[in-house]
Amino acid sequence: MVENLIKLQLNQQQLELIDRTVAQGVAPDRAALVRLAVREYAAARKAETAAKPSDLEPLR
Questions:
Q1: Between residues 19 and 3, the one the model is more confident about
Q2: CA–CA dist 16, 50 (Å, integer)
Q3: What 3-state class would DSSP assign to 9?
Q4: 3-state secondary structure of 28
Q5: How many CA atoms lie within 13 A of 43 on its CB side?
């Protein structure tokens, strides 16, 4: 697996949200939570791009 370095600049409110989420046990630490979020985002984007264009058209 290829590893990439991601640099985030978060404000105080974002850090507090991350810390609360970690405290709830979603991930063991901030870095693990960010990795989880990036994996989930990538999976959603992959599913979105795999959809056929006709699947994305509004129903008439």
A1: 19
A2: 35
A3: coil
A4: coil
A5: 6
